[in-house]
C-alpha cells in the first residue's frame, strides 16, 4: 500500500476530472492520500474531499498565501481545528511554513503566521506539514521554541545536518518527483543515505512532476501541460527503491509505516 502524504486534490487543475484522478491513484495502488489546505478558502473543501473519497486532510495557511490572509483567517483555523478535533481524518496542521525563495513575501508576516499555527498545532496535539524552501534553519528555530508532535518536512531539500535536526524533533522527510531527476544530486543522495525510518513519499500534485512528466519552459509556453497526479507515486517510489537497493513492495510498506508514525491518525484509516 502506498501513501501519498501531500497532494492538493482540491486544486483547480483537477476540477474537470477529479474522480478519474482518484480512480487512477487507487488502481495504481495508492490507498491513502493526505490533502493539505493552503488558505482559509479551502478548509471546508479539503474536509469534504477527504470524507467523500476516504482520504485524510490537514488545515493550515501556506506561506505563499499569508500576504492575502487576514487576522480572522487564523480565528477560522482555530475554530475548524476545534470543531473537527475528533475527526479521525484530520491528521495535521498544514500546509504551513516559511518560503524565502519566492520574492515579494514579507518575512515578518510569514513568521507571524508560522508561529501562530505552531501554537494551534501544539494546543490541539497535532503534527504539522511544513513547507520548507530556503527556510530550514528558521523553521527549526520555531519548532524548538514551540514544540509540536512531529510531522513531515514536505519536499525536503536541505542539508544532511538539517535533515538530522528535523528527525531529532520527531519529523519525517517528504520526497517526491524531484528525486527522479538525475541532476537532483543532493536530494538523491539524501534519499539513498538517510535512515530508512525518516522517509515518506509524496507527489505534491498537481505540482513537482517527476521527470517523465516534466515539460520545458518552451513546451509549457506552447500549451503543453505537465500536471502531476497521485497515481505517479508508485513509480516515484520505485525510483526510491532503486536508489536504496530495495524492492518496490518493501519500499511501499516502509514509507507507509513512516507516514503513520509521522501522522498517527492515519493508522485508524
From TrEMBL:
InterPro entries: DNase_TatD-rel_CS (IPR018228), Metal_Hydrolase (IPR032466), TatD-like (IPR001130). Keywords: Hydrolase. The keyword Hydrolase applies. One of its GO terms (molecular function) is hydrolase activity. SUPFAM superfamilies: Metallo-dependent hydrolases. Belongs to the metallo-dependent hydrolases superfamily. TatD-type hydrolase family. This is TatD family hydrolase.
Amino acid at each position: 500500500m502506498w501513501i501519498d502524504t501531500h497532494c492538493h486534490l482540491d486544486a483547480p487543475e483537477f476540477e474537470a476530472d477529479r474522480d478519474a484522478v482518484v480512480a487512477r491513484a487507487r488502481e495504481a495502488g495508492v490507498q491513502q492520500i493526505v490533502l493539505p489546505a493552503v488558505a482559509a478558502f479551502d478548509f471546508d473543501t479539503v474536509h469534504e474531499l477527504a470524507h467523500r473519497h476516504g482520504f485524510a486532510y490537514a488545515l493550515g495557511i501556506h506561506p505563499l498565501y499569508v500576504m492575502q490572509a487576514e487576522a480572522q483567517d487564523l480565528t477560522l483555523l482555530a475554530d475548524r481545528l476545534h470543531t473537527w478535533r475528533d475527526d479521525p481524518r484530520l491528521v495535521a496542521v498544514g500546509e504551513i511554513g516559511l518560503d524565502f525563495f519566492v520574492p515579494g513575501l514579507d518575512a515578518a508576516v510569514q513568521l507571524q503566521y508560522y508561529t501562530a499555527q505552531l501554537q494551534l498545532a501544539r494546543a490541539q496535539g497535532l503534527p504539522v506539514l511544513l513547507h520548507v524552501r530556503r527556510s530550514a534553519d528558521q523553521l527549526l528555530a520555531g519548532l524548538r521554541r514551540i514544540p509540536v508532535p512531529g510531522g513531515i518536512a514536505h519536499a525536503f531539500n536541505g542539508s544532511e545536518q538539517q535533515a538530522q535536526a528535523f528527525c531529532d524533533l520527531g519529523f519525517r522527510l517528504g520526497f517526491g518527483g524531484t528525486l527522479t531527476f538525475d541532476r537532483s544530486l543532493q536530494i538523491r543522495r539524501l534519499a539513498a543515505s538517510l535512515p530508512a525510518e525518516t522517509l515518506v513519499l509524496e507527489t505534491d500534485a498537481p505540482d513537482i512532476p517527476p521527470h517523465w512528466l516534466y515539460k520545458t519552459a518552451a513546451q509549457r509556453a506552447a500549451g503543453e501541460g505537465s500536471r502531476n497526479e497521485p497515481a505517479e507515486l508508485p513509480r516515484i517510489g520505485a525510483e526510491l527503491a532503486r536508489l536504496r537497493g530495495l524492492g518496490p513492495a518493501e519500499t511501499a510498506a516502509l514509507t507507509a509505516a513512516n507516514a503513520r508514525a509521522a501522522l498517527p491518525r492515519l493508522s485508524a484509516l
